[in-house]
Design goal:
single chain, 9-stranded mixed beta sheet, binds iron/sulfur cluster, about 220 residues, TIM Barrel
Length: about 220
């Protein structure tokens, strides 16, 4: 049962029944601590959407296995946790119209973030925190449409940082993240960390982001 629930459409104090009936393809919803980037260490409820328009070789998400959930079902899951921070992640969450889900969450005071590959523009006012993780190093011909945000977080696989010269101007915080591959040995992952650390030391406008949740063995 929702804490404060449906009402007449058009009344700003109640949910629009049309929003609550909208369905999304959801891989999983879970409560954890953000392990990477600027908001690392802050507990969040992660809503992982199915489907992605890219196929990165290091991707660790089975975004092709999902179930259809209505907004009312998603709210029911999110409200189980004592946590007011939500991250839309994926897959690529921006392949969806997120307004029907965002509206009832905003009404309940949630802080809304997105982790997106940037290939779809984020509507103005939809979110409180925009983290764009472009994959230009893999897909140089795929245009990044979302060119502003709070955080630019790039997986470092040896690409020249000059490919971000234009894009980085639109973001408040710049992060480089080593490519952590759980199928690789500790030595190989350590080498990747060391190389990325060296690049950050030479380019101090970028900060090092580590996927600390993976070290801790949590989601
Ligand atoms: S953009 Fe993200 S979710 Fe999509 S394939 Fe690449 S790493 Fe996976």
């Amino acid at each position: 049962m929702l804490a404060d629930s449906c009402g007449r459409a058009g009344d700003e104090h109640v949910d629009d029944p049309a929003d609550l009936a909208v369905s999304y393809n959801i891989v999983e919803i879970f409560h954890s601590v953000q392990g990477e980037g600027f908001r690392s260490g802050i507990p969040h409820v992660f809503i992982r959407f199915g489907r992605c328009n890219l196929r990165c070789e290091w991707c660790d998400t089975d975004f092709d296995t999902y179930q259809e959930m209505s907004v009312i079902d998603i709210l029911g899951e999110v409200l189980k946790f004592d946590c007011k921070n939500v991250i839309f992640t994926g897959g690529e969450p921006m392949l969806n119209d997120l307004w029907p889900l965002a509206r009832p969450l905003k009404r309940r005071g949630f802080h809304l973030s997105v982790e997106s590959n940037g290939t779809v523009e984020v509507p103005e006012g939809l979110l409180d925190w925009i983290c764009i993780s472009p994959k230009d190093q893999m897909y140089p011909k795929v245009a990044i449409k979302q060119r502003t945000g709070d955080e630019l977080k790039c997986v470092y696989v040896g690409q020249p940082l000059s490919i971000y010269d234009e894009l980085k101007a639109g973001f408040d915080h710049l992060f480089l993240q080593p490519c952590y591959d759980e199928h690789e040995s500790v030595e190989n992952n350590g080498r990747s960390f060391g190389i990325t650390e060296g690049v950050v030391k030479e380019n101090p406008e970028w900060r090092l982001s580590l996927q600390t949740h993976k070290w801790m063995g949590i989601l």
